[in-house]
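Postdoc handover notes: sequence design on the structure in folder B. Input tokens:
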């Protein structure tokens, strides 16, 4: 795997450089990693999370087992029920434009990342446990090959989680599964059935959703702290991405994209019943 080899070599050089700099000055390895960024401010509010979808496991990037730095890694058969807490780091300009482990071109401005043992591609939710920010990324690379780290994020992913400047953060990583595509039989059952919430009340039917899905706005606040608190309360209700986005003077909390109308209706009903919140749909 040429890409894994180049990534390993670069990380080895980084470790050697870190040791030399520690002798020469008070700069730490964490500061060196920060220099991997573009050195400019970046507005990430318009960059959306990766959307889980069904994809075949690629031949490239899934050699099993494989060995790096004398340590052998065995790939997980799937991401089902995978959840881990550990340290996240990020990688940027040194790899921007290079090939990832599965042969794709690494884009430091895309919602992607590297993992040592999840099958490629995979989708995971990464939550910064220091500030409760959460993103969804697509895993298309291998690494990080540091014993204390569990995931490497793209530069933009680190910015969205709020740890680009400090270099690393304590995170929780949870594998996600794509929404199942309804077959003709399930679509027929949907048309013939009524859907009910946990309290037994009927959930109203919605018109067919657009291919790209819709978003559900559940709140708008003058302060980000209020939006983050609401996001934290709602998150246990759904595996969908929940984001806090600033629009002018307001911080809006939205869920999505949502592509299944029944799931959308159920979520609206549950949010209303549990929190007394009237949400509204953001149509494209």
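Designed sequence:
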């Amino acid at each position: 795997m040429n890409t894994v080899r180049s990534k390993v070599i670069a990380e080895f050089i980084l470790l050697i450089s870190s040791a030399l700099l520690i002798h020469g000055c008070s700069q730490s390895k964490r500061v060196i990693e920060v220099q991997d960024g573009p050195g400019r401010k970046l507005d990430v509010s318009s960059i959306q999370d990766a959307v889980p979808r069904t994809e075949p496991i690629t031949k490239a990037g899934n050699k099993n087992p494989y060995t790096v730095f004398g340590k052998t890694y065995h790939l997980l058969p799937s991401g089902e029920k995978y959840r881990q807490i550990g340290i996240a780091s990020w990688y940027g300009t040194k790899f921007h434009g290079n090939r990832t482990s599965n042969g794709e071109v690494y884009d430091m401005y895309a919602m992607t990342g590297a993992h040592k043992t999840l099958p490629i591609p995979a989708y995971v939710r990464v939550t910064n446990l220091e500030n409760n920010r959460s993103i969804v990324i697509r895993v298309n690379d291998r690494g990080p090959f540091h014993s204390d780290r569990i995931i490497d994020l793209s530069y933009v992913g680190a910015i969205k989680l709020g740890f680009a400047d400090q270099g690393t953060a304590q995170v929780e990583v949870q594998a996600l599964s794509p929404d199942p595509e309804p077959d003709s039989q399930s679509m027929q059952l949907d048309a013939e059935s009524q859907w009910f919430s946990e309290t037994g009340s009927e959930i109203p039917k919605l018109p067919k959703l657009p291919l790209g899905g819709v978003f559900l706005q559940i709140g708008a606040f003058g302060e980000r702290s209020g939006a983050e608190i609401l996001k934290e309360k709602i998150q246990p209700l759904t595996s969908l991405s929940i984001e806090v986005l600033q629009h002018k003077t307001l911080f809006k909390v939205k869920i999505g994209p949502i592509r299944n109308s029944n799931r959308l209706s159920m979520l609206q009903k549950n949010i209303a019943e549990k929190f007394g919140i009237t949400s509204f749909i953001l149509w494209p």
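Context for whoever picks this up: DSSP finds six helices and 14 strands in the chain. Don't rerun without checking with the PI first.
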